[in-house]
Structure formats: C-alpha cells, structure tokens
Amino acid sequence: MLHQLISLGSRLAGKNKLSILIYHQVLERLDDMRPGEPDQEQFDWQMSLISRYFTPLPLGEAIERLQAGTLPPKAVCITFDDGYLNNLTLAAPILKRYGVPATVFVASAFSQGENMWNDKVLDLFEQADSDVIDCEAIGLGKLSLADGASRRQLAYKTIGVLKYLPVQERLEKIAALYAANGDIQISRKMMSEQEIRQLSELGIEIGAHTHNHPILKGMSPQAVREEIAENVRLLESWTGKQVKSFAYPNGKPGKDFDEHTVEVVKEFPFKQAVSTEWGVSRPGADLYRLKRFTPWDRTPLKFHLRMLLNLIKH
Ligand SMILES: [Zn+2]
Fold first, then answer.
1. Residue 224: closest CA among 269, 273, 276, 260
2. Cα-to-centroid distance, 24 and ligand 1 (Å)
3. How far is the CA of 105 from the centre of ligand 1 (A)?
4. What would the pLDDT profile of 253-282 be if each residue is shown by its tens digit?
5. Structural domains present in the chain
6. Cα of 7 to ligand 1 centre, how many Å?
7. pTM exceeds 0.90, yes or no
8. Burial of 168 from C-beta contacts in 10 A (0-12 / 13-18 / 19+)
9. What is the pLDDT of residues 47-88, one digit of tens each?
10. I need a surface site. Which of 63, 78, 222, 278 has the fewest CB within 10 A?
C-alpha cells in the first residue's frame, strides 16, 4: 500500500523528469570497507522495485525522449562507473532477470589485471597485519588502529590525500605504501577486454570514462583529448560498437571537470555525458552535464521514498 502511494507521488512529481542512477559495484556480500556498495541481494530488490514502479530505459533512448518531450512517467536509467568485474558476474544476471537496461562506463587502463588506485588503498588497509600502518610515504606518519580509528576511516583519509595528485605520482605513493606494509593479496577487480565484450554482447551499453581515470580539470586540452581518444579507441575495438556516452571521472562539476573539459568532450561524437552532481534531468537539460543520483537506503521502502524525494527536490 505504501509503495502504491509513493508510486503515485512519484508519477506526479516525476513528470518530464529523468532519474539517472549511479552505481559502481554489486558485491557478493556487504563489505565494511566499501559501505556504499550494495550486495547482490540488495541490488536484486532494487531492480525488482525499479522494474515494478518505474520505467527503466536505455540511456540513449531516454535522452532522445527527454529532448522530444516524450519521456514516459518515472523514467529511470541505470549506470555503473569504472568497469568492475562484478558488473558482469553479479549485476548483469539481475538486470536481465528484471529486463532493466544499463550503461557501464569503463576506464580502459584497468582492463589488463590492474586494480584502480582507490581499491589498492582499501585492500592495503583491510589486509595490513599489524595495528600500525606505515603511511610515512604520503606524510601521514604511522597510523594506529589502536586509537579507535577503523581501518575504513584511515583508508578514506589516505584516499583523500592521494585523490588530487597527478596519476603517476599517486601510483608511486601507493607502491611505496605497499612496500612499507608487507604482503598484501590482491584479487583482480576489473573486467578484462573479453569480459567487456561479453557484457556488451548481453546488450549492456559500454560508455567511455577515460583511459587512466584522471581528474580532468586542470589538464591540458591535448592531454584530455588523448585520455578520451585512447579510451574510445580501445572500447570500440573490443566491443565492435560505437561509444556514444561519456562519464567524467569522479564527476563533480567545477571540481573534477570544467567548461574547458566539456569543450574537449564535445569534439567527440558522444550523444551525452554524465556527471556525479546529484539531481534529475528535465527537458532542455545540458546533455554534457547530466546529473545522477544514488539512493543509498538499505530497505525497499526508504529506497523508494528516496527516489520520490529526489524527484520532488530537483
Ligand atoms: Zn570512475
């Protein structure tokens, strides 16, 4: 009954508005170090709810219909950033079960077995044996778990320090952290090129997300161009399909990309580009700065309400 009411509310509030949801991973089981990521059970009821109470559409079709003014009520797109292997192994079967289309934005430099830098930091803090983690390499000294801080807090503190460094310098710092903290087991987290092709063949759109996932703001136009061109070239050769959508790495307008970045993105034949700014899209929305949104709730009722609130608020 409550779901029906919320559904009615979002029908009224969601007229001519498009919600684009952003995910990264669907985990086998919940992970303390990655509290924002749903597990397969949660993702299952989320997609069940989306298919029952909303109108899921492929991103390209939704944007065309947004522009044409023919968007159905409560239109929703599902997107994933980065190219995690669990998008193929865990998310794709659930999307298929409920007939929900999706777009996965892939950073191609991580398709050869290398994990993304933030996962390397999380793995380090999760697995480091001792209660003291040596972070001299990044000027944080020796971080102690004994003073009540959790491994997660310390890991995110470290990620914060590393986030806005140039790619190469960041990787060197992480290598130094690993060298200082003993043996850490790393499992491959990202899709290989064959797995990206498999996902594409399942009908899931593969979108561009740059090659190395740098913060694009402040980079020279030529460097931005090369990051995107290499990414598009690889994804198109792996999937045999044209890449039509782009997601800015990290994605906060003004902070992670700016008008100079957008100018370069517009040189490519993308139909749309998505940010990580929260909100919904209305007719006339800037197609190179589309907003997205993640309902973070862990119960179906709250998740559903959050979807409605996002429609009302924006
Ligand atoms: Zn990303």
1. 260
2. 8
3. 8
4. 999 999 999 999 999 999 999 999 999 999
5. 2-112+188-313 (3.20.20.370), 117-180 (no CATH)
6. 31
7. yes
8. exposed
9. 999 999 999 999 999 999 999 999 999 999 999 999 999 999
10. 222
